[in-house]
Specification:
It is a single chain. This protein has one domain. The chain has six helices and no strands. It is globular, with a radius of gyration of 19 Å. Helix 1 packs antiparallel against helix 5 and helix 3 packs antiparallel against helix 4. The protein starts with a helix and ends in an 11-residue tail after the last helix. It is mostly helical.
């Protein structure tokens, strides 16, 4: 009985990143064919923006992802400068998950990243959220 449970667990662990990739592919297919900038209520609105009228650091990521999926890198960055970074982070994290699920070692590129990078990125995202709401910086709004 232990062998069956172990085999089932291994199968689930290996299938999880594949299932997640399928879900992301489906969401990407929907996103590329349904423009978030178009009217209608296909996508949820940003709660922070609805309550305050201000742009949060994440506002524009869905529209940016739509532009990126259509090959418009400049349009993606104009919606949110972090769009390519977020997509790259999600992709790298998924590949690491996939490697670990299939028993492969994870590439240790994280050891080459300085320890100050995380806090600096956090401060940068907050600063971006503040600056994009200042008068004169309307170009940073999605």
């Amino acid at each position: 009985m232990d062998v069956t449970v172990t085999q089932r667990t291994r199968t689930v662990v290996r299938a999880a990143p594949i299932a997640c990739a399928c879900a992301f592919a489906g969401a990407g297919a929907y996103l590329v064919t349904h423009d978030p900038s178009a009217g209608g209520s296909r996508y949820p609105s940003c709660v922070f923006h609805e309550l305050t009228g201000l742009w949060c650091p994440g506002c524009g990521l869905t529209r940016g992802a739509h532009a990126l999926l259509r090959g418009d890198v400049v349009g993606a960055v104009s919606m949110n400068v972090f769009t390519p970074l977020v997509v790259a982070a999600i992709t790298l994290t998924w590949f690491g998950w996939l490697r670990r699920a299939w028993g492969r070692p994870i590439r240790p590129f994280a050891h080459r990243i300085p320890t100050w990078t995380g806090p600096a990125l956090f401060v940068l995202v907050i600063a971006y959220g503040v600056v994009r709401n200042l008068p004169g910086f309307g170009a940073l709004a999605p």
